[in-house]
C-alpha cells in the first residue's frame, strides 16, 4: 500500500507515503492520500497529523510514466483531480498537519507541504517545482507559501531547487535535523499540539484558514487551467515523452 495511516495512543496520527522507487504517486495514490487525511479529520481521536515518507525522498510528484502509458486523457485528468483532492485534504484537515520532509520534495510534494501547517525537514532535504520542464503548471500556489515572491518566480521559471536549510530563514521550515532524527523532531512538534485541548485546536485550524489572504484551492485550480491549455497544444505531451522516455508511436493516441 503506497499510503498507510496509524493512530498513536497520544492522538498523533502518522500518515506515511511509500511508493518506490521515488515516491511519485499514481492517480489512485493521490486519492488514497486524500482519503487518509479526510479520515483523520473525521476521527475525533486524532489530534494532529504527521505526514511523512519512507525511502529516498518525501515525494517526487505525479507518476509521469503512468500518464504517458495511458491512452487518452484519463490519467492526466485523474492526476490533476487527485492532486487537487490531496492538497485540499491537507489544507482542510480539521487538525494541524506537520510535514516531515526527507530528501527531495518536488512538484506535487510541494503542493502537500505548502498546504501543511508546520514543516520540519532533514538537513539534506530540498524543494522544487520542475513543472515547466514537463510542460505543466501547478504548485506555484503552494511554493508561494514557502518563499518570498521574487524567489518563487526565479525557482518556477528556472526549475531550480532550494535547500530546506535556506527555507529556515524565511520561517516556512521550522527546523532542519539529521535525517535519522527527522521523525522524532516531527513527533516532538506534533506532541506539543496534541497536549492542547483538541476542541480549541480544531477551532484554531478553521480560524487560521479563514483569514488566509489567498484561497489555495481556487488558486491551484486556476493554475491547472493552463496545464490543460498546454496539453491541448501538444506541448505537455511532447515534454513528458522526453522525460519518460516514451516512444509516442508505441503508445495510444492522445
Describe the structure.
With 254 residues, this protein is of the alpha/beta class. It has one domain: Alpha-Beta Complex (2-enoyl-CoA Hydratase, Chain A, domain 1), CATH 3.90.226. Helices cover 46% and strands 15% of the residues. The chain has eleven helices and nine strands. The longest helix has 19 residues, at 74-92. The two termini are 30 Å apart. The model is unreliable at 250-254 (pLDDT under 50).
Distance between the termini: 30 Å
- Beta strand count: 9
Order of strands in the sheet with most strands: 1-2-3-4-6-9
Radius of gyration: 18 Å
Strand content: 15-25%
Low-pLDDT runs of 5+ residues are: 250-254
Q: Helix-strand pattern, N to C?
A: EEHEHHEEHEEHHEHEHHHH
Family: Belongs to the enoyl-CoA hydratase/isomerase family.
GO molecular function: lyase activity
Pfam family, one: ECH_1
InterPro entries: ClpP/crotonase-like_dom_sf, Enoyl-CoA_hydra/iso
Keywords summarizing the entry:
254 residues; alpha/beta; 2-enoyl-CoA Hydratase, Chain A, domain 1; six-stranded mixed sheet; three-stranded mixed sheet; 11 helices; disordered C terminus
Summed up:
The protein is 46% helix and 15% strand. It is built from 11 helices and 9 strands.
Topology:
Elements (H helix, E strand, L loop, with lengths): L2 E5 L4 E6 L9 H16 L5 E6 L10 H5 L5 H19 L4 E5 L2 E3 L1 H7 L3 E5 L3 E3 L11 H4 L5 H10 L2 E3 H4 L7 E3 L4 H13 L3 H13 L5 H17 L2 H10 L10
Parallel strand pairs: 2-3, 3-4, 4-6, 5-7, 6-9
Antiparallel strand pairs: 1-2, 7-8
Helix pairs in contact: 1-3, 3-4, 3-10
Amino acid at each position: 500500500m503506497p499510503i498507510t495511516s496509524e493512530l498513536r495512543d497520544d492522538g498523533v496520527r502518522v500518515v506515511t507515503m511509500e511508493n518506490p522507487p521515488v515516491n511519485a504517486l499514481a492517480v489512485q495514490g493521490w486519492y488514497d492520500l486524500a482519503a487518509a487525511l479526510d479520515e483523520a479529520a473525521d476521527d475525533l481521536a486524532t489530534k494532529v497529523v504527521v505526514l511523512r515518507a519512507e525511502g529516498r525522498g518525501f515525494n517526487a510528484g505525479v507518476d509521469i510514466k503512468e500518464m504517458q502509458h495511458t491512452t487518452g486523457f484519463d490519467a492526466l485528468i485523474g492526476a490533476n483531480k487527485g492532486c487537487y483532492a490531496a492538497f485540499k485534504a491537507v489544507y482542510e484537515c480539521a487538525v494541524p498537519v506537520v510535514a516531515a520532509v526527507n530528501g527531495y520534495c518536488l512538484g506535487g510534494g510541494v503542493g502537500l507541504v505548502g498546504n501543511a501547517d508546520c514543516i520540519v525537514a532533514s538537513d539534506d532535504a530540498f524543494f522544487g517545482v520542475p513543472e515547466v520542464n514537463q510542460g505543466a503548471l501547478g504548485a506555484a500556489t503552494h511554493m508561494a507559501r514557502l518563499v518570498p515572491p521574487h524567489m518563487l518566480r526565479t525557482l518556477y521559471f528556472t526549475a531550480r531547487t532550494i535547500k530546506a536549510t535556506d527555507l529556515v530563514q524565511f520561517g516556512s521550515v521550522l527546523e532542519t535535523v539529521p535525517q535519522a532524527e527527522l521523525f522524532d523532531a516531527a513527533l516532538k512538534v506534533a506532541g506539543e499540539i496534541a497536549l492542547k485541548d483538541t476542541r480549541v485546536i480544531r477551532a484554531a485550524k478553521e480560524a487560521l484558514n479563514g483569514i488566509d489572504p489567498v484561497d489555495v484551492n481556487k488558486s491551484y485550480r486556476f493554475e491547472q487551467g493552463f496545464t490543460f491549455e498546454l496539453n491541448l497544444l501538444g506541448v505537455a505531451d511532447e515534454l513528458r515523452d522526453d522525460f519518460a522516455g516514451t516512444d509516442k508511436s508505441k503508445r495510444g493516441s492522445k
